[in-house]
User: What shape does this take?
Amino acid sequence: TLDEALVLAREKNVDLALARYNLLEFQSRYRQALGGALPAITLNADYTRNFERPKAFFAGGQLETGIDNGFDASVTLEQPLYSGGKVLSGIRAAKHGLAAQQKQLQQSQEDVNLAVKTLFYNALFSSATALIQQDNLTSSQDHLSTIQQRYRQGLDSDLVVQRQEVEVASAKALLISARNAQELDLVSLQDTLTLDVDRPIRLIGTLAPPREGAPPYEVAERLALNQHPGLRAARENTQFYGRLVEIYQADMIPHLSLFGRYDWIAQSNSFSPTADQRAWDLSGGLRLNYPLFTGGDRLEKVRQAKIDLGRAGERQAQIERSVRIEVRRQWLAIVEALERARAQETSIEAARLALKATEIRY
Assistant: This one.
């Protein structure tokens, strides 16, 4: 059924799986950006073995200044205090990137749903068309049999027989085309659902008449511009690249951080230094980092980020134009299809009346 096909698509479609992985990646990046605001704690440890003890020279003589084993361990803490808004911009950029991926996942979900529904109904339509073509072929073959009998009785010419044989051949070609279309629609549906294309499936459903008319064009356009996941993702991407510009600009101004360090030092000829052979110290302070000259590297990064921002803005405008055009095209197609359906219903009703009259006369 259609509902089962939609469930299978959500579970197995490759595009949806890739979109979910992209979302997981940006969720990780967002957590990473949050970690940039937290203090960094580093543990370092060194062991030194002096195979030849270091020496110092005093008044023309030598003096050994080290012993066999040296131990050094330190814990360092650093907390950013001011980075020109880089940390905050990084968090905001990651947030916009995460929102864009969420919208992109929603867009992928909507695209897959649309593809499944389209292929499902196309397969039902081609199946119904194949049944109609089969009936047409049967009718043409029956008519050919009647004409052949009339020809043998001398009531019809051979030209009439040949004309009907052409009709039968054309009906066979149309039947083959309809069955091929049905098979291709089923294969496309299986591919979208990531199913084995060699395994036969049977669709359960009917082609119901349209339940409602097209909404007003202005309402449809406004809804699309406000709710279209792809357009909303493009807007979030533009915000994301805007924050990247702020991040690279922040690299060009002074950064201030608070640091603290605890050291434990020991030297001993054995691996168990005594109290007199070990010491520790504790220090802390402020650290200022100001890049005076980086060879233009950071300036070019800012320029590249602005280029990416401009590209994202153009892409957003392009998607917005595409959404407007697609809404217009689909709205016109819906209106045309509804009118055509009403006309076909009138033709079918007229054909039923003609069939009834023919049966009565017969």
